[in-house]
Amino acid sequence: MRSEKEMFDLICSYALNDDRVRAVLLNGSRANPNIRKDIFQDYDITYFVTEFDSFKADHSWIDVFGERLILQMPWTFSTETDDYFNYLIQFTDGTRIDLTMRLISDANKESYQGDGLNIVLLDKDGLLSFIQPPNDTAYHIVKPTAQRFFEVCNEFFWVSCYVAKGIWRKELPYAMYTYYHYTRDAFEEMTNWYIGDLHGFTLSVRKNGKLYQHLLPSGIWKKFVSTYPFGDYNSIWDSLFQMCELFTLFARAVAKDFGFESYESEWANVIEYLKHIRQLPPDAKEIR
Fold first, then answer.
1. 8-state DSSP, 118
2. What three-state secondary structure class fits 68?
3. Phi-psi region for residue 259, left (φ > 0), alpha (ψ -120 to 50) or beta?
4. How far apart are CA 248 and CA 242, in angstroms?
5. What is d(CA 121, CA 141) in angstroms, rounded to the nearest whole number?
6. What is the helix (H) or strand (E) element at residue 98, kind and residue range?
7. Are 45 and 97 spatial neighbours (Cβ–Cβ below 8 Å)?
8. What is the dihedral of CA 176, 177, 180, 186, to 10 degrees?
9. What is the CATH architecture assignment of 4-138?
10. Domains of the chain, residue spans
């Protein structure tokens, strides 16, 4: 596997020798000084170029970066954008580049306002002189508002009833979909606030909660792991109740520290309803 220095040298060498490429920008995790490097980090690279047509006419030019395992060009899957196009390249040695091509007209402060994770690797014309030293402040957990706190609490317990319905009907795909795409979304937003509250809202949990294991207290993390069910109904029930337990724990802490109204009676009512549905016979003619 090639080293970071080898890859940066290769990326910049190509750009330096191609007059169409005027600047090279690194972004993403490798531009974040607070992230520990590992072997699976991508090289998120932007080439600022004078035009697109000659690059698109023959994609073999990307072979300079190494032997490909697989290539994806997302811009070919749907209506092509005029603003950029990209190559997602996994190489046989384990290295990966996500290479975005942008016109030099996009090299302006407005386009990168609010994104602090950028490092200029090459700038032939001073196009990127506005780029500041990298920081990840823009990705830190944002404090909740009272309204958003209410919405997340309401959403979590509302859609929990959908999961229960799917389990009782023995509709596994429906139950799992609602569990992971609705209930869990609300649960993880509350988890983020809880973690933010613990750490002063000075950090990011990273994409999809990559750092949960390191930021949650160890005892809570063990319970958090139990919110991932197996593909059977009892397991989904157990995980759902574990999620409800953690959600209420996190929500109480956030509500207390921010002075928000808590909705304890509503939460308790829904949990009792879920327990009732779990015990409901499969041939039941009514819910109550």
1. E
2. strand
3. left
4. 10
5. 29
6. strand 96-103
7. yes
8. -120
9. 2-Layer Sandwich (3.30)
10. 4-138, 140-279
Of 25, 88, 31, 30, nearest in space to 62 by CA: 88
**Rounded (10°) CA dihedral 60, 61, 62, 65:** 120
pLDDT computed for residue 176 by the predictor: 96
The pTM (predicted TM-score) of the whole model is 0.86
CA distance 47 to 129: 15
Q: Which residues pair with 44 in a beta bridge?
A: 27, 98
Residues forming a β-bridge with 118: 27
For helices 264-279 and 233-258, angle between their N-to-C axes, nearest 10 degrees: 170
Give the three-class secondary structure for 170. coil
- Kindly state the average pLDDT of the residues 151-180: 97
The tokens describing 126, both together, are: 């001073």
Instruction: Report domain 140-279's class.
Output: mainly alpha
Query: What confidence tier does 79 reach under pLDDT thresholds 50, 70, 90?
Result: low
Q: 80: pLDDT confidence band, cut at 50, 70 and 90?
A: low
Same fold, 4-138 and 140-279: no
- According to DSSP, the residues that pair with 84 across neighbouring strands are 102
> Cα separation of 166 and 233, whole Å?
9
Report the pLDDT value the prediction gives residue 114, as an integer from 0 to 100.
65
Per-residue confidence (pLDDT) for residue 81, from 0 to 100:
62
Amino acid (1-letter code) at residue 238: D
Average model confidence (pLDDT) across the chain: 93
Q: Which residues contact 281 (CB under 8 A, 6 or more apart)?
A: none
Residue keyed to tokens 């005027």:
22
pLDDT band, residue 29 (cuts 50/70/90): confident
Provide mean pLDDT across the span 279-284: 92
- 212-239: b (≥16 Cβ within 10 Å) or e: beebbeeebeeebeebebeeebeebbbb
Residue 19 makes CB contacts below 8 A (sequence gap 6+) with: 50
